[in-house]
Amino acid sequence: MTCNVSFCQQCDPLDPSVCEQCEDHFVLLNSDCNQCEAGFYIFNGQCITEKLNTLYIIIGVSIGVIFSVIAIISIFCYFKKPKQGIENEPLLQEIDE
Fold first, then answer.
1. pLDDT tens digits, residue range 3-43?
2. Where are the domains of the chain?
3. d(CA 1, CA 37)
4. Are 9 and 17 in contact (CB under 8 A)?
5. What is the rounded CA–CA span in Å between residue 35 and residue 26?
6. Contacts of 88 (CB under 8 A, 6+ apart)
7. Does the keyword Transmembrane apply (predicted)?
């Protein structure tokens, strides 16, 4: 049976006017294969706006920078902390009588 849907890779075996899987670079919408509109791209079978992708990149980079700054400050504070131990205690103690 021939598939009647343009750009369809696999149609329903019982109904050739219903697409089940589209060719690459096309998205399945209401049993038809469509290209995404300008400003959108296909991701996991859906048309996703490019602005959303840019927003996720900005958020990811911001979180990475924040954690890096926190790590650097933590390391700096750790090494600047005064060491307390036997080295800093006086060897002899004076006894008041």
1. 888 889 899 889 888 999 888 888 888 888 888 777 777 77
2. 1-35
3. 31
4. no
5. 5
6. 82
7. yes
Please tell me whether residue 31 adopts helix, strand or coil conformation. Answer: coil
Half-sphere exposure (CA, 13 Å, Cβ side) for 19? 18
Model-wide pTM > 0.85 = no
Residues 6+ apart with CB under 8 A from 35: 25, 26, 27
- Is the C-alpha dihedral spanning 15, 21, 24, 25 positive or negative? positive
Closest by CA position to 3, among listed 18, 34, 27: 18
**Residues with Cβ < 8 Å from 46, sequence gap 6 or more?**
27
CB neighbours (10 Å) of residue 96? 3
